[in-house]
């Protein structure tokens, strides 16, 4: 299988939208007590126009993962994303690495992460942060293995349902 990682462009908005919907549902869909709230979140967060708008923002960088020319995952970096007690010019956020379940064992996530990390280093950021659902042990292990440390708990509400996340931080210097 040939895996290619490339920076995404506007023409990739529909791919990213679909990948976001599918991967979010695969990973978190079973946690939603109200399926209407899940559907509203998917439409709001992963709508094609929303992704197209996000792709056009100077602060965002997206990568698309292709396996034998099929889109199988994506990553998103926010180049400037303040975090309390840190210089906002020196902090970036790994906002998403989403990979279709059937391609997780193909190391697509690590290749996306490496592209994102290279960009973060080129931007000369001192810190990279992310949030991950506190029960997502596979992702937490991946991030810890790659130098992230748990920093604090973070609550996020989708619809009427609260979710607890780990905010993780990596020192880049």
Secondary-structure element order, N to C: EHHHEEEHEHEE
User: Number of helical runs?
Assistant: 5
Q: Which sheet architecture does the biggest sheet show?
A: 7 strands, mixed
- In one word, what is the shape? globular
Residue stretches low in confidence (pLDDT < 50, at least 5 long) are none
In quaternary terms, these chains amount to: single chain
CATH A-level architecture? 3-Layer(aba) Sandwich
Secondary structure topology:
Elements: E1 3-7, H1 13-28, H2 35-46, H3 48-56, E2 60-67, E3 70-78, E4 91-99, H4 108-122, E5 127-133, H5 137-145, E6 149-158, E7 161-171
Parallel strand pairs: 4-5
Antiparallel strand pairs: 1-2, 2-3, 3-4, 5-7, 6-7
Helix pairs in contact: 1-2, 1-3
Model description:
The protein is α+β, with helices and mostly antiparallel strands. The protein has one domain: Aminopeptidase. Helix content is 35%, strand content 34%. The chain contains five helices and seven strands. The chain has helices at residues 13-28, 35-46, 48-56, 108-122, 137-145; strands spanning 3-7, 60-67, 70-78, 91-99, 127-133, 149-158, 161-171. The protein has a seven-stranded mixed beta sheet, sandwiched between helices. α1 (13-28) crosses α3 (48-56). The longest helix is centred in the first third of the chain and has 16 residues, at 13-28. The radius of gyration is 16 Å and the shape is globular. The model has no long low-confidence stretch (mean pLDDT 95).
